[in-house]
Amino acid sequence: MNKTRKLISLVLVLMLVFSCTTVIPAAAAQTNNAAGVPGPGCGILKFNNTLKWENVFMYAWNEAGDVSAQWPGEQLSPEFTDDDGCEVYYLNIPYGSTGIIINDGWGVQTDDITDFYPAGDGYYLDADRTTVNGNGALVYVPIPLDETFNIIIGDADGNKTINISDVTAVQKYLADNPVPKSFNAFAADANQDNVISIEDATLIQLYLAGIERENNRCNTMKSIKPYSDKKIYSLDFCDLLDWGKVSVIARDKNGNRLPANVVEGSDSESLIQIPSKTASLTIVSEDGTKRTVPCTDSMVLSLGFGMLYVSYDKGNSRYVVNCELYEPTGLIAEFEFVNSLGWDKVVMEEWDEYGNLVKSTEQFG
Predict the structure, then answer these.
(1) pLDDT tens across 32-88, in order?
(2) Are the C-beta atoms of residues 88 and 231 closer than 8 Å to each other?
């Protein structure tokens, strides 16, 4: 796989390579090549590569040590790419395995996986779900594919309590003003009509006053499956302009404000979640002083195989939303450059349609 995952400095990648600590189970470190040792493990697991690792390895072990290949294990090939642009793998668990670790080959890894029969028959990873394992290493928590998380309708600011601050948060959201980082637009939709309006703020106030309304869903629980709800698009976003934690304004074709969230990831990346019926998207800087013009490109809004970023259109003095595709398409040309003059260094620069430098790559020799 030769995907471009991030528009960030190569220095960061090198830092990651040399700073990662590979931690394998203590039992597996004792001896190698213990294939065939009886144990509970066998079967097939599904793995959704939601963090879009360049390479995926599976390491299997039992009490005697390595079950198949030594660390980092067997390199896997994806079976297919789903509608959200996520590569899906099927892991054949070797007979006799006690547990496995999924990793990227460079020390970035999951915690030990010992449950070979999870809900949904597999796992995915979330950038915000990490833990420290028994060896003191920071690892990703394997999340069952059918796991759901609950939100409280009316708890707009995400503090697990419904109070007047939730009303204020909804009003700020509707006025396109900065909202708390824990703001959850799906919970702010008090009547659950998939539109955020002043009625939702009113319904929260009525709930606090003890006045009942038939369409008021405040203080009820709603379960969400983050990677299986096809009504919500999850778009990768790279903060090239250092805008900080951005917020987004999503509207339908009639101009109604829709629920939309920004989930912080690592470094300059985050995840923008918008309903599938979004017709325009505006990205706003953390301090609220800068914002893009509304993006109405249907291909960008339904992007499941690339990354969004903001650039500055000098000619029209405005910020615009752009996208970079992960896979080569008709929009991207491939070519071969032969260094016939023997230059010591070759620099390839990529520019957007507004004359802004997007990427610069150096090759030596």
Answers:
(1) 333 333 334 456 888 999 889 999 999 999 988 898 889 999 999 998 887 667 899
(2) no
Nearest to 229 by CA among 118, 327, 140, 147: 147
Tell me how far apart the alpha carbons of residues 118 and 339 are, in angstroms, rounded to a whole number. Answer: 52
- Say yes or no: 321 and 236 in one domain: yes
Give the domain extent around 244.
Answer: 150-325
Residue 364 belongs to a domain: no
- Asked if 117 and 168 sit in the same domain, the reply is no
Distance of CA 333 to the CA centre of its chain: 27
**What is the torsional sign of CA 311, 313, 318, 324?**
negative
Which pLDDT value is given to residue 303?
67
- Judge whether 361 lies within some domain: no
231 and 111 in a common domain: no
C-alpha to C-alpha distance for 270 and 235, rounded to whole angstroms: 9
Q: Tens digits of per-residue pLDDT, 217-259?
A: 999 987 766 554 446 677 888 899 999 888 899 998 888 888 8
Q: Domain total for the chain?
A: 2
- The span from the first CA to the last CA of the chain, in angstroms, equals 24
Q: Are residues 311 and 263 in the same domain?
A: yes
The domain boundary residue, chosen from 144, 159, 189: 144
Give the whole-angstrom CA distance, residue 101 versus residue 103: 6
For 244-255, b/e burial (b = at least 16 CB within 10 A) is: eebbbbbbeeee
Distance CA 224, CA 247 (A): 21
Residue 363 domain flag: no
DSSP codes joined into one string, 63-75: TTEESSSPTT-EE
Pairing of strands 41-48, 122-124: parallel
* Residue linked to tokens 């294939």: 35
What is residue 225's three-state secondary structure? coil
Evaluate whether residue 339 is within a structural domain: no
